[in-house]
Amino acid sequence: MTDPRTWLVTGASSGFGEAIARTALSRGDTVVGVARSAERLSALASGDSPGRFVPLVLDVLEAARFDVAERTVRDVVAEVGRLDVLVNNAGRTQIGALEETTEDEFRALFELHVVAPAALTRAALPVFREQGGGTVVQMSSVGGQVTMPGFGVYCATKAALELLTETLADEVPGVRFVVVEPGAFRTGLFGGGAPVLSRELPACRDTVGPTRRYVTTGGGTQPGDPARAAEAIWQVVTGDRAPLRLVLGPDAVEGIGARLDRLRAELDQWEELSRSTDLPDAATPAG
């Protein structure tokens, strides 16, 4: 039997974070759940896992600073003894064309979706190396590969986190990295007041308007079940092997599959021109 694990889950008060925390707790693990207030964590703190749920009040944007991230991980290990799984889950939806997005909105989303997870991952790696292993779960999105008008900045943050993590998988042997790419799941991401809606410009109404309507009216209609997603994540975290990218939901599978087909077709179509740019005397790479 595997010894109980210790999980650090950001954004643990709702959605995927809460579902992952509940799944881990139900298996006898310890969970350090992060949210911006203790009240947000009260449902988990009052559950039937006394002593195994540790609330941590922290605005994840603060952890975008490397020193804060390092102190946070250090304090977690001092409090619970070890860290086995880091789940970078905290996030939000932002809707707006690039022209509609303010500088503050743009920078804040990159801080939340890229810099903070990178800082926490960076802080956890020495712990995992010393322990001889660990797992980093990056909660991305189908938007890390598939774009939609109005989601450009959001998708850019997820794509950046995915490529950073793909590199880490080569840089840090012995640590398991899992990028989770969910499709439409019934979380609170589209709930009232949750999405950041950039100021609408008339010039973008026809392209971004349908996305705005989808986000502002589609909450509660998504087909995906967060509890089943959490179970799938549990399986790859605790199993003998895991994919680098875990795609969740039929819509995500179909959307990403179609994108890969388009990329292959475009590469093939332009291959002759692409290959024509070496110096005439350049050696052909072995292969």
From TrEMBL:
Signal peptide: none annotated. PROSITE patterns: ADH_SHORT. The keyword Flavoprotein does not apply. The keyword Oxidoreductase applies. InterPro entries: NAD(P)-bd_dom_sf (IPR036291), Sc_DH/Rdtase_CS (IPR020904), SDR_fam (IPR002347), SDR_oxidoreductase (IPR051911). Gene3D superfamilies: NAD(P)-binding Rossmann-like Domain. One of its GO terms (molecular function) is oxidoreductase activity. Keywords: Oxidoreductase. Belongs to the short-chain dehydrogenases/reductases (SDR) family. This is SDR family NAD(P)-dependent oxidoreductase. It comes from Geodermatophilus normandii. The lineage of its organism: Bacteria, Bacillati, Actinomycetota, Actinomycetes, Geodermatophilales.
